[in-house]
From TrEMBL:
Note on how the cofactor is bound: Binds 1 Mg(2+) ion per subunit.
Positions of Mg(2+) binding: N209, D223
Protein name as it appears in the record: Succinate--CoA ligase [ADP-forming] subunit beta
Residues annotated as binding ATP: K46, G53, R54, G55, E109, A112, E117
Residues reported in the UniProt entry to bind substrate: N274, G331, I332, M333
One cellular component term from this protein's GO annotations in UniProt: cytosol
Enzyme class: ligase
SUPFAM superfamilies noted in UniProt: Glutathione synthetase ATP-binding domain-like, Succinyl-CoA synthetase domains
EC identifiers of the protein: 6.2.1.5
Alphabetic keyword roster: ATP-binding, Ligase, Magnesium, Metal-binding, Nucleotide-binding, Tricarboxylic acid cycle
Record field: catalytic activity: succinate + ATP + CoA = succinyl-CoA + ADP + phosphate; GTP + succinate + CoA = succinyl-CoA + GDP + phosphate; (S)-malate + ATP + CoA = (S)-malyl-CoA + ADP + phosphate
Keyword Nucleotide-binding: yes
Amino acid sequence: MNIHEYQAKALLKSFGAPVAEGVPIFSADEAAEAASKLPGPLYVVKSQIHAGGRGKGKFKELPADAAGGVRLARSIDEVVQNAGDMLGNTLVTKQTGEHGKQVNRLYIEDGADIDRELYLSILVDRTVGRPAFVVSTEGGMDIEAVAEETPEKILTLPIDPDAGVTDADAAKLCDALALSGDARSDGMTLFPILYKAFMDKDMSLLEVNPLIVMTNGRLRVLDAKVSFDGNALFRHDDIVALRDTTEEDEKEIEASKFDLAYVALDGNIGCMVNGAGLAMATMDIIKLYGAEPANFLDVGGGASKEKVTAAFKIITADPAVEGILVNIFGGIMRCDTIAEGVVAAVKEVGLQVPLVVRLEGTNVEKGKKIINESGLNVIAADDLDDAAQKIVKAVKGA
């Protein structure tokens, strides 16, 4: 689960992190009052969407040379003007794709005098099985670009969960970021604070880009991106309350109601599979034969008929789907349960696109019988390779 920048900053501030004063707004009418609460005279007007690259993004409804989704304003009048330009319009960044995201919230923040921009994140490093800091002196840039072009400028520092961030760890981070004086003192305090927030709130990612050294020599969290482990949200009602469903795909929201692992993609072949590994293999082989999957969907090992029906309905609700591949290897999941769910869903919502079904494993003959006697126009497949070829051919009209 993701949250907005202003929510992330409020959370980090509650742990003691240094952030600028700011006010979120939801309409242009609130802009002047929000700005009047800040010291000024420099303000920053920030679009609040769940995507990076906002500053370099462009609004669909505005001229191509218009400023992006993060703008400086040197008066309250400029704040009001920018708020009017941005709210309700669609911001396109490298992370949103060409469709972009509508800006429904802004964050009006006090400006900062920046001396240096740094990069910092905390994530779970699965290579060592520990949380780890990733830091670089090259803040404000894509960390992927830094890793490719100047990897020597990145430090990855795993943290012992039993010990937490020690003074030695904090000193290594300060050295990697070339911090001295007040900035180093701030870093020695800040790094344990960020780690505590990461652990206490079950975050999967905490990214501060940039972490800035101001001209007065102090550190400040200038931007913050936070993602949480969805499996741990039952422990954090305060975090769940921050969820903005307008930033999420409607199909993914519906899938979460049935505990389905679903991720919408940009292809045209809908997939319903049991098991994450098999789902990934199914997506790969669809691409191998020249098509693109429209989704990742794992119905799990113990899905009921109702759950399978819901999964099928979610796939068919996607207008981009031109064909559906059901690929089930029955272990815990029984093939007859899948078949019953598919038949029920098709009878309820209809079937307007080709459907290929490959069943194998527990109760496979019962499953095939249910499909064969259903009267549905289903293309049977013998194995995964056969299934992928048949759905790609069907979609392409062969």
